[in-house]
Amino acid sequence: HPPVLQMEESSVLRRANCRAKGGAPGFKVAILGAAGGIGQPLAMLMKMNPLVSVLHLYDVVNAHGVTADISHMDTGAVVRGFLGQPQLESALTGMDLVIIPAGVPRKPGMTRDDLFNINAGIVRTLCEGIAKCCPNAIVNLISNPVNSTVPIAAEVFKKAGTYEPKRLLGVTTLDVVRANTFVAEVLGLDPREVDVPVVGGHSGVTILPLLSQVKPPCSFTPEETEYLTNRIQNGGTEVVEAKAGAGSATLSMAYAAVKFADACLRGLRGDAGVVECTFVASQVTELPFFATKVRLGRSGAEEIYQLGPLNEYERVGLEKAKEELAGSITKGVSFIRK
Ligand code: NAI
Question: Any idea which positions bind NAD(+) (predicted)?
Fold first, then answer.
């Protein structure tokens, strides 16, 4: 190391030891794909999170640049960068939470499923690292298609003998964030007051907003229901088209990822009543994975909530969602088993 880096490293260690002695609360979090469109703002927001004491930023490009930049923020978390496959194990060792936004995003005209061929292999490699170096970490999987990458991760962990379904969580928070925003617009409310459960999965018709269960209680005309359901299901495509080839949602996604990661960390800390929607191993339907509200605790998704009463429109939507989801789950599972 040149002298400046040496000094930074020793001061990093001093601070980390200091923190350990003082017993200050804080979790160790790794972001895999930290130099990407989602990864960079996500890294910035996690550096601002008081529950994080150590933040590891891993990518196959530019990890040190992003780390140098973010490490100058005068917040508590100690930041370290890791570049390329040879440093993956160091990036993962000792982590409590691993967030994965690594992989290619959509361009106009592409579905999330079109990303499968590239992202499936990336997720497999990263999850092999997690199984080896931090098998007890909670995993927040963002890389698309989430409906297939979560089953891929599960199969990798099963093969390694480290699979704990409660700790493997597909991030669907952006669908909830969009639903809250669009419903608030229609109702003329502040989005912070609105809670829309979104169940199923994270792609097209598998994204099923339960508008009959919105809080505060309200009702929608059939036209409003149709408009809102379509807009929530196609919110991602709205951004892909507006960016016209420059990628998909990154900033709202980073916001959503931090909202979910923060909930996971509060659960790990033992806070009561932490509830979020996530795509997780589930017995709520006949499918092995399904997104619903869950209660997050010290061991991950400790309680998985049932769907609750659905209206006719939602029952029809549920059947369509399950049909598509079944195929995406099978595709993910067979990618590893074949
Ligand atoms: P991006 O292309 O801007 O960034 C991806 C990053 O992953 C790049 O920095 C790249 O170097 C890195 N990467 C590639 N291979 C890697 C590997 N083997 N190990 C570690 N890092 C690797 O893409 P963006 O926009 O950040 O999107 C990332 C993923 O998130 C995409 O798959 C996208 O579809 C997905 N996504 C998921 C959403 C959700 O709601 N779950 C919403 C929006 C995007």
Answer: 33-39, 59, 119, 142-144, 253
**Assembly ipTM:** 0.99
121: Cβ contacts below 8 Å, ≥ 6 apart = none
Q: What does DSSP say about strands 300-304 and 289-297: parallel, antiparallel, or unpaired? A: antiparallel
Q: Does residue 146's CB lie within 6 angstroms of at least one atom of ligand 1?
A: yes
Q: How far is the CA of 315 from the centre of ligand 1 (A)?
A: 33
Ligand 1 center from residue 143 Cα (angstroms): 6
Q: Is 103 in the pocket of ligand 1 (CB under 6 A)?
A: yes
294: tokens are: 């869950």
Is 23 annotated to bind a ligand? Reply is no
Q: pLDDT tens digits, residue range 219-248?
A: 999 999 999 999 999 999 999 999 999 999
Burial of 34 (0-12, 13-18, 19+ CB in 10 A): buried
Q: Which residues are the active-site residues? A: 202
Question: Which residue, by CA, sits nearest to atom 14 of ligand 1?
Answer: 103
Among 31, 32, 38, which is best to mutate for testing ligand 1, by the most ligand atoms less than 8 A from CB? 38
Structure tokens at 2: 């040149």
Which sign, positive or negative, has the C-alpha torsion 105, 108, 111, 116? negative
